[in-house]
Amino acid sequence: MAEPRNPVDEAGPQHHVVIIGSGFAGLCMGARLKRAGIDDFVILEKDSELGGTWRVNDYPGAACDVPSHLYSFSFAQSARWTRKFPSRDELWAYTRGVAERCGLIPHIRLATALAGADYDEAVGIWRIRTSQGAMTARFLVLGTGALGRPLIPEIPGLAGFRGTIFHSSRWDHGFDPRGKRVAVIGTGASAIQIVPEIAPQAARLDLYQRTPPWVMPRPDRAITPLEQFLLARVKPLQWLYRFKTYLQYEIRALAFAYWPQLGAPARAQALAHLRRQVADPTLRAKLTPSYALGCKRVLLMNDYYPALTRPNVHLVTDGIRAITASGIVTTTGEERAVDAIVLGTGFDVEHCLGPIAVRGRGGGSLLDSAGDGGLEAYKGATIAGFPNLFMITGPNTGLGHNSMIYMIESGVAYVLDAIRQQRRDGWRSAEVRPEALAAYNADLQHRLKRSVWATGCKSWYLDHNGKNTTLWPGFTFVYRWVTRRFDIANYIIERP
């Protein structure tokens, strides 16, 4: 008589940990697992190359607004950054270098998109479906980040435009702006980097602004060969420089999360920056924000305002009524003919998980778990009803003042400790207690009420109900403290 078949064996390769995404979060999780001596894991990447945000966003002028030596892993510091603020190309090269140095390449499965995952309560594993077949895992870690789904505005006639149109994060490198009439919709972090790059080439550039951003000077400069040499040879100097930069940025949390009135000096600096670069009082008035600095993302740029003073650049503050086959119609009824439209409209943070079907205990959907109140997680990492499912940079772990890499490393440490405890103690699954999840988020939302993000502006930090499900309400070292260990007492533990 043939032996009964094991359903686990028929579900494809078995792994202890499956990580979704090969950006900073996924690579950090993989690197920490390797350092801990845990090799039974894979990193799934839906695209044909690794890299995450800094691979996908390759528009002209793409760069980071956090200093290079801080926007990098503490365990993989580099002394060879060429500028104080890294370009997109340097950041992507850095992530590829980390993957190689940390031995992650054999663990990465490229062109392998997550199609769905179901938690099997009978055996305590995740059954995962991908574009390349099935697999199973004891732990499923989502490292996809919040800035992966382009937000395409619902503008009447958008689909009927006959010219070139694309989102900033899906840049069309076959598009040549020279001699073209170009419209850029949006004035966020991507748009203000794109406009100075293409404005000198375009015959005309129309920038559609709904709300002016606060723009601060960008203290960027080249890092000299001597500085690179010293940072490479004197390791304590590298740590000291990183720590000094961290403190300079961390102190800003006082004005963002605790006492918004402390932002007055920064507001004065931003207004002085605007006055220096825009002489026309009418244009300057259109570019002056009316909300508290920090309520929306503060941007760093030195050549954005000068680009708007060019004779071929027009700031359009009228709303958009519709898009025709050949142009844009504003709310005043004016139609402005254009050859190309660049959507600098940001990302759909509220629905960042996308349509992927992840089902936990009892078949409950991860997407449905958010409900109308928005997705909530315990310490930004776990959700009730989803055993052994972890998120890196989940809800309310975003920052408005410091480096997300610090938050990623903190979240990864929490997940790693859970995996270590499971391997040591042999339990089958851990699921956050609903009461712990509710209490954590009630306290978090209470703290957010005193922040600058609650002063009345509309931003991508808030969901459709005005609830902040994006940002961490305080110092980053506080988040590191609360994620320093996996607090198993707040979890329902199942044992074999």
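(the above was protein one; protein two follows)
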Amino acid sequence: MRAVPLLLCLLLAAPAAAAPRVKPQLPSEDARYSTGTAVDASETDEWWTSFNDAALNELVVEAIQSNPDIGSAQARMNGARAVTVQSLSPLLPSASFDVNLAASPSDAASFQVSPQLTKLLEDLASLGELAASLPGYEPPDEDEDEEEDPDVTWNGSAMLNFGLNIDLGRSAMALRAAALDEAAAKGDRDGVARIILQQVVASWLDVRSSRARVAIVQGQIGTNTSLLELTRARFEGGDARGLDVLQQQQQLASTKALLPQSQQLLQLRELQLAMLLGRDPSHPNLPEGLGLPELPPQPGLGTPADLLQSRPDLSAAHTRWRSSQARSISAGLSFAPTFRLGGNVGWNLRWFNEWDTQENWGFSAGVSVPIFNGLQRHGALQQSLAAQDAQAHALSAAVRTAQMEVETALAREATDGDRLAALAELLAASRTAYEESTRQYAGGLVNYLTVLTSLASYQAAELNHLQAHRDLLGARADLHTALGSSWARRLN
């Protein structure tokens, strides 16, 4: 009959535990990316150093140390570690030294005497009165210093209490789940650092690109100024029309209008980078750097299965799924009996005119078999299993998103590389065409419209080539970020 309550608990837990669980969809070991080589991607550890930019390396270190988002993620990881320590407590014995003291009226002590003893005391008092009435009775001498009974009685104890709860693995699985949550919080912190680093690299490339854009526009203003002087000279010599001079003045004004816009863009890029570095936006004080670095060689891609280890966000998602499994097991074990061992040793105290003490000790053992608590345990088990399914779906989505990010970066690299090569050819041809048209215009061989057309094409090609170069470097940075690396695991 003792097995009936336990059997009833298991029957209540069985429907939820027997339900089929969702399994995450993870990449197979033989999966490969659509392009690139599947060599070991370990070479991409500190991938930002491949740009050979000492200023960028210093900015990355500063961002890791000073960015508030990384600091917040570190604090959350410390909080998860504290939860792990708390989850250890049910597995350890408890001990406390407890001192209690209580006061009560002395007259109330009579209510603690049994009726039989009260009757006996009353009979003894009656015998004393009878003896006093006998001839020759001499009352005893009364001690004048005899103290009267106190109005208040003090009772207390000083005990060392200890105990130990024993269950059939529920607390151990809860501790494992908390430890996995701590590991997931560390992955979250590393994931935040991964994104911050990507933003720092992108912002630094934007700053250098914006500086180069300002320099290009300033150069274009100088070119248009020189052409305007040439047009005026030809007009004064009777070899050009006044309309040519007006059109070139318009072209110069249009180019000058690009300079404030480019300078504003540069200032905004510097402010964005200062925020990522945790600096005062009013005084960014960024290092020097003009132009863009060359594209470094493409890293080894590894395989999609490597993402679970190289990307901290995927590692965190996978760890949370494992944590949800441990919590489901812990919730299932809540239907099992629990045991309690306890004991105490110390003294009982009493004051009635003077202090009296008495040594005391005790030991206890008990077992609790859950039978029914309003389906709370049953609901908690169903909730934990639903959370496990949700984490499995989240992990599957995160893996697919990571693969899509790698494929997107690869596609961008391929197209941006082709675009940069085409624009490089266009830039060279436009520069040659403009220089030749200027020479011929100065010699009176072509009209001003030819020069104006070649100048506009050349200036547009300069800016487009710069933007294409920036886009290609951004695609490479995004590829490194999508692949992930192990550098974040070394964060202190």
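Reviewer note on protein two: Residues 170-236 form the longest helix (67 residues).
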